[in-house]
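Q: I'm a student working through a structural biology exercise. My instructor gave each of us a protein and asked us to get a predicted structure, then write a short paragraph describing it. Mine is Transcriptional regulator. I'm not confident about reading structure output yet, so if you can add a plain explanation after the tokens, that would really help. Here is the sequence I was given:
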Amino acid sequence: MRDDERLSMFDQFALVGKALGSGKRLELLDLIAQRERTVGSLSELTGMGLSTTSAHLQVLKRARLVTTRREETSIYYALAGDDVASLYVLLQTVARSRIADAEQARLKYLGVVDDSDVEKVDRHELLARVKSGSVVVLDVRPWDEYAAGHIPGALSIPLAELEKRLSELPSDVDVVAYCRGEHCVLAQEAVRLLRANGWRANRLDHGMIEWRVSGEPVQTAS
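A: Happy to help. First, here is the predicted structure for Transcriptional regulator. I'll explain a few features afterward.
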């Protein structure tokens, strides 16, 4: 193989690395992993301007990490495949294991000194407890994300509505909350709210994106 051919090959691989080399683009992938979204909705969720959001999305599209579809005047962005979701999850895992500041940044994002006060349940334990009927699975993401795909049998109560809808939760079984991913703050806050109001509550040790990547079943709602 000639030197220029070898370099060309690695340059193609680098397109993906370059596309992932932005915290803003990773945030966009995190949101798109939950459901397909328009530029406008992504702009609103991230606080970026429309033109900036669009520019970042084009970088992701050129690297074939996202796909688009048009519906009337709107263009929707979706992950290009499960391999993209797996890559995103692995990137986070490697960063936390290799970069000391990554863990501190995560805790700061969650608004805690540490999160050891919130017990985590892994998916194998969760599935066993669901089968035995000893737990309620609570999805605290916004409704549109729940509708696009959730853990089968999970109850949807968005975090913003949880305090007013506590009466919908049985008080005689444990509650396991989950949200977008392992580093999503919604489940963390939900568990603290539930415990403060007398519920036995824990959080899933990951979220919807890791659930999908693990090949577990996913249910949708109309």
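A: Here are two points you could use in your paragraph. The chain has two domains: 3-80, 86-213. Residues 3-19 form the longest helix (17 residues). It's a good idea to check both against the output above yourself.
Q: Great, thank you!
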